[in-house]
Write a structure and sequence with these properties.
Elements (H helix, E strand, L loop, with lengths): L4 H16 L1 H4 L3 E3 L9 E5 L5 E4 L18
The chain binds zinc ion.
The site of zinc ion has 7 residues, from loops.
């Protein structure tokens, strides 16, 4: 079991790095009601330029940069 310890340490550091990375922390979501569609709320991160359509109108809790291709 000792051999698994480094794996958990790396996993913990990875999660901590993802949670506290500047790119995520600096995310600022702006909604634009003019671009709402099908009951979804248009949101755009002014920091990384990612655009998303959210169901509940609340901004994403994590930065979606890297998961979605920027429009421009
Ligand atoms: Zn962002």
């Amino acid at each position: 079991m000792v051999i698994f310890a480094p794996i958990f340490i790396v996993l913990f550091l990875f999660v901590a790095w993802k949670m506290y990375s500047p790119s995520t922390r600096n995310c600022r979501w702006r909604l634009n009601r003019a671009l709402n569609k099908d009951g979804k709320t248009y949101q755009r991160c002014v920091t990384c330029g990612v655009e998303v359509m959210t169901e509940d109108g609340a901004p994403p809790k994590v930065c979606l940069a890297g998961q979605a291709e920027p429009q421009d």
